[in-house]
Amino acid sequence: MIDGSADDDLLAPLGGGGEIVAVTLFFADLVDSTALSARVEPETYRMVVGRYREQVLQVVDRYGGRIGFTKGDGLLAVFGHPTAHSDDARRAVLAGLEIVREVSRLSEHVDRRFGFSVDVRVGVHCGPVYLDRAHHDFTGSTANRATRISGLASPGAVVISSELKALVAGDFALRAQSSPQTKAFDGPVIYHRVLGERSPIE
């Protein structure tokens, strides 16, 4: 008879503990980075991507977020943990807009010096994640959703999920858009392009 206790141990809770926390996440992704790396000198590519990452890190820090993880030339930022603010959703969107502006300026310099341009797309989403305190890591569909939402953005754009719209519609001018059905989603997705921050008198 085979003892199933060993298999049961595989599904036992891991040590270190964790908790469910509500956060806002954005994923900033360099557009067509794979194709760019194939046609640009490695040292030039490394320098440009390094500068792009510095810009993202600086902006995220300025708005009170932190980098959760990197995926290729994309960076996932977390707003709402370990320090939560009442306006974390707004901070995340503002950070996304500033990153788009900073990368646009970087692209102008790159084009003048090296003859090519760079662009970024940003997707922002909110929801619960499981925080692994032992490894300072988090998991859950919210992070995947933020990454997928960013893939719907056109170059140089910030887009947000419908869930986030409920939190920031009063702060930003938005344009609703619908995606065709893709492998990343079960069906068409309504999302919103951020056109800019609303003025106080709007």
TrEMBL record:
GO molecular function: adenylate cyclase activity
BP GO terms, sorted: cyclic nucleotide biosynthetic process; intracellular signal transduction
Superkingdom of this protein's organism: Bacteria
Pfam families: Guanylate_cyc (PF00211)
InterPro entries documented for this protein: A/G_cyclase, Adenylyl/Guanylyl_Cyclase_3/4, Nucleotide_cyclase
Residues annotated as domain Guanylate cyclase: 24-150
Homology family: Belongs to the adenylyl cyclase class-3 family.
Name assigned to this protein: Guanylate cyclase domain-containing protein
Organism encoding this protein: Mycolicibacterium psychrotolerans
Source lineage: Bacteria, Bacillati, Actinomycetota, Actinomycetes, Mycobacteriales
